[in-house]
Each structure stands twice: as C-alpha cells, then as structure tokens.
Design a protein that fits this description.
The protein is an all-alpha fold and 171 residues long. The chain has two domains: 1-80, no CATH class; 84-171. It has six helices and no strands. The longest helix has 42 residues, at 110-151. The radius of gyration is 28 Å and the shape is rod-shaped.
C-alpha cells in the first residue's frame, strides 16, 4: 500500500529494486514495533539490497511514516462510522490524543494533521447528535408514559399527579 500523496521512487534508488509487495513487507516490518533498524537492514540484505543506516532512516521518514499515518487515519475513519456510543467515544478520544501527538512531531505532514482534526471534529459532532437523539427519545417516552397515566381511569387525580411527577423525576 503506497501512500497516496507520495512521489514515485527515483529509478536509481536502491529501494526501487524491491517490488511493491516487498516494499509493503518492509514497511510492515518497520511498523511492527518488533524490528530494530538492524533487522530492517538484514531483511533488505536478504533481498539483495544494501543501504546505509542513514538511507534506511530517510526511507522510513519519507515513505514508511506517511504510510503509518494513512493507516491510522483510515482506521480512525472506519471507527468513526461505528454507531456504538462506547466505541465511538473511546475512538474519538484516541483520535484526539493522536492528533495532539502528531502536532508535536517535527516531521508531521500538515495535511495528515488536518485530516486527524477533521475526523476528531466529526466525531465530536456525531457524539453531540447522538446525545440529542437520546434525550429526545427519552422525552418522548416520558411524554407517552405521562399521557397513559393521565388517561388511566383506574387512578384518582392525586395518583395520576403522583405518577406523572415520578415519571419526570419531580418527587
């Protein structure tokens, strides 16, 4: 998976010797959190590519980190579509936290940061709309209960008043 905003690798780049699939495997290795720089250099050597540690670091900064950010944005966008209040709230909190972390990174792409903030704001708006809907549903349910209590012919006027107060939490 090549990030959408990246330029094509230069033809004379040693990384261009790798297939797209191999570059994906290298990115996965580097993003796994389990591999060291030495592991990545050894993996490259095993695929016939010898580069310096500096070249690998530049490749990571220019090619792999943007891929990581795009994966995170895609995951956040997918989770943002979920309607479960618990998942949505936790997801929005995680996106907000990650957006803050990205904002403090020296090499952060402003477009990626803007995307994170957009997702964060959309999530907050979604949470507000969901709360409004729950409140409206609750009010409608209470109104129906109060109407049923008011029409209940088995209750005295005092009992009806008490039941309506209880429905609205006015006791």
């Amino acid at each position: 998976m090549t990030p959408t905003h990246q330029k094509k690798l230069r033809a004379d780049s040693k990384f261009a010797l790798l297939t797209e699939e191999q570059r994906g495997e290298l990115a996965d290795l580097m993003l796994s959190g389990q591999a060291t720089q030495r592991d990545a250099l050894d993996w490259l050597a095993g695929h016939g590519v010898t580069v310096s540690a500096q070249s690998l670091s530049e490749y990571y900064r220019n090619r792999v980190l943007p891929l990581r950010y795009e994966r995170m944005i895609a995951a956040a966008a997918t989770l943002n579509k979920l309607r479960s209040a618990e998942v949505a709230s936790a997801t929005h909190e995680a996106v907000a936290q990650r957006a803050f972390q990205l904002a403090t990174e020296q090499e952060m792409d402003p477009k990626l940061l803007a995307t994170f903030y957009t997702l964060m704001l959309q999530g907050q708006q979604s949470d507000r709309e969901e709360r409004k809907l729950r409140l409206a549903e609750d009010r409608a349910r209470k109104a129906d209960e109060a109407e049923a209590a008011a029409k209940d012919s088995t209750l005295t006027p005092e009992q009806k008043a008490e039941r309506i107060k209880a429905i609205f939490g006015l006791n």
